[in-house]
Amino acid sequence: MNGIFEWKNLGKVAVAIVFLALFIGMSIILGYTDTSIQLAYEAFTSFDGRNEHLIIQSVRLPRALIAACVGASLAIAGVYMQTLTKNPLASPGILGINAGASFAVVFVLSFFEVSSLNIFTWVAFLGAAIAAMVVYFVGGVGRKGLTPMKITLAGAAVTALFSSFTQGILVTNEAALDEVLFWLSGSIQGRKLEYLTSVFPYLLVGWTMALVVAPMMNVVAMGDDIAKGLGLKVGLLKLTVGIIVILLAGGSVAIAGPIGFIGIVIPHIARRLIGNDHRWLIPFAGLLGGVLLLAADIGARYIVMPQEVPVGVMTALFGTPYFIYIARKGFNKG
């Protein structure tokens, strides 16, 4: 019986891979500049410098790869945060990780003359790490330690705090406002391949760690007491998960700004389609996250063409109703 489920899950992962490849191809072809499959093929096999070839190679391919990587990273981070906190609404955006990374980047942009992608990457990681530590510390104060409700409230408070700091900086620095406003809404438009290559090693480490500890998360999902009884070092595992979330969420913010709802919506969809076994859930959620962000980015190109809507606005359009559905479902159960 288990063999049947394994084959079914393998088939679902294979289908998700096909969809990811399909949407990457659509992202390369579709947009304001009219191109085709033939032109895309020629751009990589017989590049001749024409405008369409330049757009495909230097604009659309990096954009497609960035969307796939950021979507996968946010989805995986969301799965781990929801499992660890036992909170269906947990995500990098809700628990302050994105807000901390965003504040750090805006602070550096506003007060220092920095243009190095590597510096932005480390600044985003630092902001994400500080936010995570504050949330864990505040959520763990008092009786019963770190509970799902306390960590959610702590995350909301930290998000509000860092968001207020960010808005305060932007109000007093109009030049910074012009520079980062589009980035703060969450966007991959105009991002060069260098943005991804500077962060990709950290994302790769995060993905690898996520796959390695996935079997242990099946035990943690049953409760800390059971996990400890089975000999699992829960404290060390939680620290590892925290590092994974910081690498994936911090790296994503460094590339594309704070894109919301991917980390909330995708884990729930993935669980419905493939179940709660993290050995399958993690890679499947990553693939679905890439597909969803690619689809949102393609849609963002056509809403107000020739202008583009930031992809963060698109994810909010379909993510908000699902967020409300999840919240209502949770409250009804309670």
UniProtKB/TrEMBL annotation:
It comes from the Bacteria. It comes from Robertmurraya siralis. This is Siderophore ABC transporter permease. The keyword Calcium does not apply. Belongs to the binding-protein-dependent transport system permease family. FecCD subfamily. One of its GO terms (molecular function) is transmembrane transporter activity. Keywords: Cell membrane, Membrane, Transmembrane, Transmembrane helix, Transport. PANTHER family: FERRIC ENTEROBACTIN TRANSPORT SYSTEM PERMEASE PROTEIN, SIDEROPHORE TRANSPORT SYSTEM PERMEASE PROTEIN YFIZ-RELATED. It is a multi-pass membrane protein.
